[in-house]
Write a structure and sequence with these properties.
- By secondary structure, the chain is an alpha/beta fold.
- The chain is built from 16 helices and 15 strands.
- Helix 11 (about 335-340) links the parallel strand 13 (about 325-330) and strand 14 (about 345-350).
- It is elongated and about 75 Å long.
Amino acid sequence: MASKRKMSATFDFKPFSVRQMQVLSWWTSPLYKNKEAIIADGSVRAGKTVVMSLSYIVWSMTEFNGHNFGLAGKTIGSLRRNVIRPLVSMLNASGYSVKDNRSENRLDITKGNKTNSYFLFGGKDESSQDLVQGITTAGFFFDEVVLMPQSFVNQATARASDTGAKFWFNGNPEGPYHWFKQEWIDNLTKHNAIRIHFMMKDNPSLTIETRERYERMYSGVFYKRYILGQWSVSEGVIYDNFDETTMVVDLPSETVYDSEWVSVDYGTQNATVFKRWSHYKNVWYNTDEYYYSGRETAKQKADIQFREDLEEFYEHNHLAKEQVKIILDPSSASFKAELKQHGFRVVPAKNDVLNGIRAQMSAMNEGKIKWSSKAVNTFKEINSYIWDKKVADRGEDKPVKEHDHAMDADRYFVYTVITSRTRIGW
C-alpha cells in the first residue's frame, strides 16, 4: 500500500564540510560533471551516507523526470534504517514530496513538476543479483557496497543504461584485496570515477568527545579501517588489544551479581566450553570456565555426559537453571534438545563471526568485559587466535579455525547479550 510520508520538515542541517560539499556538487563541477561514478570511503561516522544519498536524489531530480533509479543496501531493512529514514527527513525539509510504496519497495519523489521512482534493493548474497534483472535505471546508489557481492553490483550497474546514468558508492574499508577495492578504487580511470576519502573530522556534527569515544572503541585492523580509513589486511593475533594487567580481575567471593549467563561452544571431537558471565557495576566478568577436548583426551563425550557436566557446573557456581540462561551455537541442535529436555533455558547465539569479533574488541576496549584467573584456557587461546592470511589474500576476513573454542563462547556472549540485549529482553 502506498503511503505519503508527511514527516515534519524540521531536519537540523549542519554546515557541510569541504568533502561533503564536494559530494553534493561534484556532478555540477566542470572538472567532474562528465564522470560516471563517485566513491566515498573512509572512517566510520564521517558523514558519508547522509550527503551521498542527498546528492544522489538532488542530482537525479535535477537531471531527470519520469525515470527509474535504484537504492541498494545490504538488506532493505538496513537501507531503510540507515539511509531512507534520514533521507526522507532531509527531502521533506527541502520541499520534496515522498510517497513510500512499501509493498513494492519503491519511493516516488516529486518536486515541482518532476517525479522519479526509486526502487529499493538488498544486496546481501549472490542470489540478490536476480532482484535487479529486468529493470532499466538512470542511476544506482550503493550504501555499504563492500558488504555486497560483486555479482549484485555488476548486475545493478548493468541495468543503468539510460543516457547520463551515474553511480554512487558509499562504504567503509575492508581488506586491500577486497573485490571492490581492486575493481573500482584501483581503477578509477577505467570506470571514469572520482573518489573522495572521508575521515571523522569531515563530519561537522561530531563533537571531539564523540570522535574520541569512537577512537577508543576500535583497535588492531578495525582501528586502521574504521578510524584511519585504511584498506588494511587482517593479519596476526586477532585480539591484540588484550591486556592481562587490566582485563583479568578476581572479584571477592561474596560479590553479589546483578545478572548471569552461561555461554557454550559445543563440540564432539573439538573442545566443548562453558563460560559463566556475571554482571557487576556495569562490567561483565567471566567468573568461571569449563573446557573439555575429546581430541586431547582421546575420549569422546556424548550429549548426555556434557549435559551432566553442565549440571555440575551450575551446581558448583550456585546457578539456577530456571534463572540463568544458556547461549548456544544454533547449529548444536542435538545438545540443545538434550538441555531443554532437562530444564535448561537456551537462547540461540548470534553467530556472526566478523561482527562478533569487532563487538568483542570494542567491549574489551571500553571495559565492558573482563575475565577472572579461572579462564585458563581462554588465556591460552587468546594469544593464539589469529587471522587466516591465505583467506585475507583472497579479500576475506576469517580467523584460522584453531584455538577458537573459548573464543567462540566469548564472542557468542558479547554479540548476543551486550550488543543485542534488547533483542532478547535483557
